[in-house]
């Protein structure tokens, strides 16, 4: 009986743990343009590539920086972890664990909380 419970738990973990990403892994690949709330902010572009590379580009200054990304499932929403981006290069701190609030073929909404944000920071992107 105990073996059945352990097998059931392992199956549920596999289904819900890995199945929660759904098509997000495929949907997130591409170039996203930041839709800043502040019209004076630079419209940063984020290119998410297969293989875990993310490239941030400022189309005005042509400055670029490369980091890494990883998706992880969560019961509430999927998480997009970005790391390795130089925080001095862009106006927003990108190295964080971002909650994916919404993603479809046109829109990507992410939010993170941390002391460097002064609370919760939401970033809204449109697909290029």
Describe this structure in words.
With 128 residues, this protein is of the alpha+beta class. It has one domain: Lipocalin. Helix content is 17%, strand content 41%. The chain is built from 2 helices and 8 strands, in the order H-H-E-E-E-E-E-E-E-E. Strands 1-2-3-4-5-6-7-8 form an 8-stranded antiparallel beta barrel. The chain is globular and about 40 Å long. The relative contact order is 0.17. About 13% of the residues have low confidence.
Strand numbers in spatial order across the main sheet:
1-2-3-4-5-6-7-8
Q: Given the helix and strand composition, which structural class is it? A: alpha+beta
CATH superfamily: Calycin beta-barrel core domain
Strand content: 35-45%
- CATH topological fold name: Lipocalin
Average pLDDT, to the nearest integer? 81
Alpha-carbon distance between the two ends: 54 Å
Topology:
Layout: H1 2-19, H2 24-27, E1 30-34, E2 45-48, E3 53-57, E4 64-72, E5 79-83, E6 96-103, E7 107-114, E8 119-127
Antiparallel strand pairs: 1-2, 1-8, 2-3, 3-4, 4-5, 5-6, 6-7, 7-8
């Amino acid at each position: 009986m105990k073996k059945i419970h352990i097998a059931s738990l392992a199956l549920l973990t596999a289904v819900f743990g890995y199945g929660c990403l759904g098509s997000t892994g495929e949907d997130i690949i591409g170039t996203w343009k930041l839709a800043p709330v502040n019209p004076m902010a630079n419209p940063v572009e984020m290119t998410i590539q297969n293989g875990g590379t993310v490239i941030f580009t400022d189309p005005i200054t042509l400055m670029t920086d490369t980091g890494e990304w990883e998706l992880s499932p969560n019961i509430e929403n999927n998480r997009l972890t970005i790391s390795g981006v130089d925080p001095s290069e862009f106006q927003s701190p990108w190295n964080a664990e971002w909650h994916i609030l919404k993603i479809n073929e046109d829109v990507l909404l992410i939010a993170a909380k941390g002391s460097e944000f002064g609370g919760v920071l939401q970033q809204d992107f449109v697909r290029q």
